[in-house]
């Protein structure tokens, strides 16, 4: 960086084209027109049956502080040649609109609006990049963590990924997202300080190497730390590492809490079983076995199938980088815009790829829950003026294969959108991270197991109301008519 700006803001954390488009809207007097944009993704990540939404807290902080600083404006003028009159407009711009959003920890599925932004065209356009940047990463990591936790079940998961995360921001926000997804602790101390996440850790091979022997290293560690987890695989796990941990623990007795040992290489199934036997025989039946080394949900499942005796899973690289699918692919699409007469008009994006055709109009999102069994029947997208909470019977049908349908009665329709920003004011109080985590955990009970399995889960229904579907078809036909008219000229 050529210099550090004391007034750096996040408004420039956007793609240049957003500012360029905004300039055109402004020059043509369209910038203040009302617009509705939605955030959604088209495919669930990791082949999972659900995702866990995360990122709202940071989005709200970003919107609250949204402004172009003096140095931002100077940069736009001096380096990118924006003109003074437009910069004067940017100088005064703040976020003044409304935002409806799912809450963090909510179960989210493909093709449903996670966030709805209703504000001026200019403001809505300028915030796109930051919103997607936040949602895409945090939701991806929360989902990966949840996937891992589904496999781990009752043992503890610690997040160890800071050294491999895609830079510092990703390390701490990733740790936070992983907690929402279900993990228990992080090794990143700053994440602990900023977000109140429990922080935990063991020690590295370097310490054993620095002291030249495990005996010296474990004693040195124990001298200053009451809770001890000794890393036992530096030279030979079964012949030196574990016996030394046991020896040191016996020598120190009540002076320490011999919490555990950590295995970080070799055959984890075999070594953990041997370690358990050795610890138990020495009377340390409560001592935990922590394992790490390139773990993810697949290795964990396999290790469990082999009968590995593991109490704590330390997971770094593959969680924090979402190793097997590095992007969620959430998008931000305009669905409605005010016309020159002050009326809202739906707008649609047509694509030869059916998947990419957007669903026009201002919409709401409900989760339909069967009152008898408490399980979710599916999610139901309606137009903004519909209210399924007052309906006795709704028809749910697949938005593409429409013949796949069912009538649902005796249900609760739960509105998944909370108004979080009103006229630019944040009106939502973020729950604690623990509450978000608990919410995500409890929500999973709404899903049948078929949607939760990590391999080839069933597709959870995300359906359009009849009115919403009709509106989409009408919009598609209108565009087709326009294309036909144009091409026949
Ligand atoms: N019993 C097992 N079954 C399946 N995979 C395992 C088993 N034990 C370990 N693994 C996994 O196999 C991968 C490679 O392990 P390997 O034993 O080669 O590590 P290592 O080379 O000994 O470790 P390092 O290179 O960190 O010293 C890791 O992802 C590890 O988690
Ligand atoms: O394997 P991960 O899931 O990313 O977990 C974090 C890893 O970080 C440490 O390794 P280190 O950076 O010392 O390198 P290593 O791979 O040689 O053990 C630790 O020993 C874990 O193995
Ligand atoms: O505390 C640990 O054991 C730890 C922390 C970060 C990375 N690997 C291990």
Quick recap:
This protein has 489 residues and is α/β, with parallel strands linked by helices. Helices cover 39% and strands 21% of the residues.
| Proportion in helices | 25-40%
Shape: globular
Q: What's the helix count?
A: 17
Rg to the nearest angstrom? 27 Å
Spatial strand order of the main sheet: 13-12-1-5-3-19-20
How far apart lie the N and C ends?
54 Å
Fraction of residues in β-strands: 15-25%
Mean pLDDT: 96
Major sheet size, sense and barrel closure: 7 strands, antiparallel
Helix and strand content put the structural class at: alpha/beta
| Bound molecule types | adenosine-5'-triphosphate, 1-O-pyrophosphono-5-O-phosphono-alpha-D-ribofuranose, nicotinic acid
Poorly predicted tracts of residues:
none
Work out the number of β strands: 21
């Amino acid at each position: 960086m050529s210099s550090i700006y004391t007034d750096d803001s996040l408004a420039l954390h956007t793609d240049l084209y957003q500012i360029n488009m905004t300039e055109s809207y402004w020059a043509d007097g369209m910038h203040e027109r009302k617009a509705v944009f939605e955030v959604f993704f088209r495919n669930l990540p990791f082949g999972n049956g659900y995702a866990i939404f995360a990122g709202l807290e940071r989005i709200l902080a970003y919107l609250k502080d949204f402004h172009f600083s003096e140095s931002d404006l100077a940069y736009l003028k001096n380096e990118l040649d924006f003109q003074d009159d437009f910069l004067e407009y940017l100088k005064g711009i703040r976020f003044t609109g409304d935002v409806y959003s799912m809450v963090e920890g909510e179960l989210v599925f493909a093709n449903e609006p996670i966030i709805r932004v209703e504000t001026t065209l200019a403001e809505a356009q300028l915030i796109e990049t930051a919103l997607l940047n936040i949602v895409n990463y945090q939701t991806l990591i929360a989902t990966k963590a949840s996937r891992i936790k589904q496999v781990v079940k009752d043992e503890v998961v610690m997040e160890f990924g800071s050294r491999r995360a895609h830079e510092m921001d990703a390390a701490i926000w990733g740790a936070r997202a992983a907690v929402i997804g279900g993990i228990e602790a992080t090794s990143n101390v700053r994440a602990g300080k900023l977000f109140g996440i429990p922080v935990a850790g063991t020690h590295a091979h370097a310490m054993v190497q620095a002291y030249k022997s495990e005996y010296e290293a474990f004693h040195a560690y124990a001298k200053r730390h009451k809770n001890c987890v000794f890393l036992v695989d530096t030279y030979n796990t079964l012949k030196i590492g574990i016996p030394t941990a046991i020896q040191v623990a016996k020598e120190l007795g009540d002076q320490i809490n011999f919490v555990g040992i950590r295995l970080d290489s070799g055959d984890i199934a075999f070594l953990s079983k041997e370690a358990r036997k050795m610890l138990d025989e020495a009377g340390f039946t409560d001592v935990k076995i922590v394992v790490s080394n390139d773990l993810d949900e697949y290795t964990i499942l396999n290790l469990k199938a082999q009968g590995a005796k593991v109490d704590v899973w330390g997971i770094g690289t593959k969680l924090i980088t979402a190793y097997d699918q590095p992007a969620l692919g959430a998008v931000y699409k305009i669905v409605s815009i005010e016309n020159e007469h002050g009326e809202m008009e739906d707008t649609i994006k047509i694509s030869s790829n059916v998947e990419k055709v957007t669903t026009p109009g201002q919409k709401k999102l409900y989760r339909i829950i069967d009152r008898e069994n408490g399980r979710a029947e599916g999610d139901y997208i309606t137009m903004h003026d519909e209210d399924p909470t007052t309906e006795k019977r709704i028809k749910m049908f697949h938005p593409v294969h429409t013949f796949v349908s069912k009538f649902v009665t005796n249900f609760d329709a739960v509105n998944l959108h909370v108004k979080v920003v009103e006229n630019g004011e944040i009106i939502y109080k973020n729950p604690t991270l623990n509450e978000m985590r608990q919410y995500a955990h409890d929500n999973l009970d709404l899903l049948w197991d078929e949607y939760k399995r990590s391999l080839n889960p069933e597709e959870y229904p995300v359906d359009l109301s009849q009115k919403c579907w009709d509106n989409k078809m009408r919009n598609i036909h209108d565009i087709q008519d326009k294309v036909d008219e144009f091409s026949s000229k």
